Amino acid sequence: MSRAAVLTGLGTFVPPRVVTNEELARTLDTSDEWIRTRTGITQRHWAEPGTATGDLAVAAGERALKSADSGGVDLVVLATTTPDHPCPATAPEVASRLGLENAAAYDIAAVCSGFVYGLASAAGAIAAGIAERALVIGAETYSTILDPDDRTTSVIFGDGAGAVVLRAGDPAEPGALLGYDLGSDGSLKDLILVPGGGSRQRAAGTAGAGEPGPRPADSYFSMQGQPVFRHAVTRMAASSLAMLDRAGWAPETVDWFVGHQANVRILHAVADQLGMARERTVVHLDRVGNTSAASIPLALADAVTGGLIAPGDRVLMSAFGGGVTWGSTALVWPGVVAN
Ligand code: COA
Asked: Active site: which residues (predicted)?
């Protein structure tokens, strides 16, 4: 029988500083009412200046390892849009800080789809015998790349991290990831973009949101909201259906849809397209905003801790993000307690 990746630990961390809609409305031409009705978000957490993605990743990773049955891991996959440095990857330092000496470690850059890509990548390594146990982390500090004067992005994104531990196991056991649907369309790369700082375009000195000092505009995150909205709904719905087909589940038999927490209207539109009751959609973005690669594990942990997701429940996860990229996976919840 083939080896599956089985979820055995779950941990999260959000930085303590809460930024409310009202606080943003003091400096931006926006309002609590607009943000709530157009996105579903009421607040987000932003890291204090000086806190990096790696710091959040270590905190969530530590909690996931504590939540797992036992033992370390031999692979660390970190999904992020906001690495600590352009070079090297953030994952090796996170692994080292977690005491995971000699673990293979690399970053995945699939923006908001990063966590699902990370799960698939780690599960592939486990299935191939490259790894026995893996820590998959989604961690972001979007506050460091948001343009503080851009109301179309600053109100949407938040900082945070979520992590799971996967171990080699049997495809029939609860917690086994039941397959993957991944895809991309790079012709749409300009929809979600940080133009500078890579090999195509250099970027000069930077300062994060809330930090003093000028920043070149090309180091800011930019997004074309409306087309992203449309593509997110279409791609997440199609990818979810492909995944459900692989799992052999009819949409109405799914207990919980844990979609990427971009916008509550996107989540509901996807549920409608799948023919699932909207009540089956896990909504966490109201309290943390869109945390990109961290959003699915954060939403999952919130639903588990809040008693929504119970052992034996059928859980479908689906994401859409920059690239553009999308991905879905599914599992029967194994009874893991979130930390
Ligand atoms: N506060 C007040 N008004 C705002 C605003 C804000 N923060 N942001 C935009 N507006 C204004 C626009 O300027 C526009 O004004 P106009 O009609 O005078 O031109 C109006 O609100 C409507 O803007 P629009 O972009 O059409 O709003 P929308 O309903 O599409 O909502 C998003 C904007 C960004 C919330 C929505 O498009 C979205 O969620 N997109 C997906 C984002 C996402 O999830 N990205 C992550 C990757 S998946």
From this structure: 112, 260, 290
- CB pairs under 8 A, 24+ apart, for 228-234? 228/191, 228/192, 228/324, 229/263, 229/265, 229/266, 231/188, 231/191, 231/320, 231/324, 232/260, 232/262, 232/263, 232/266, 232/320, 233/266, 233/269, 233/270, 233/273
Look at ligand 1, atom 3, and give the residue with the nearest C-alpha: 30
pLDDT at residue 245, as a whole number? 97
Residue-range domain boundaries for the chain: 4-169, 180-187+222-332
pLDDT at position 191 over 70: yes
Task: Write out the two tokens for 98.
Answer: 């977690």
* Fold of the 4-169 domain: Peroxisomal Thiolase; Chain A, domain 1 (3.40.47)
The binding-site residues of ligand 1, defined as CB within 6 angstroms of any ligand atom, are 30, 34-35, 38-39, 112, 151-152, 155, 192, 223, 225-226, 228-229, 232, 262-263, 290, 320-321
Bridge partners (DSSP) of residue 320 are 326
pTM (2 d.p.): 0.95
Place domain 180-187+222-332 in its CATH homologous superfamily: Thiolase/Chalcone synthase (3.40.47.10)
| Cα separation values, 64 from 69, 112, 173, 258, Å | 10, 20, 20, 18
- Residues 163, 63: contact at Cβ < 8 Å? yes
Please check the confidence at residue 261 and state whether its pLDDT lies above 80: yes
The alpha carbon of residue 254 and the mean position of all alpha carbons in its chain are separated, in whole angstroms, by: 21
Cα 161 to ligand 1 centre (Å): 25
Annotated catalytic sites, by residue? 112, 260, 290
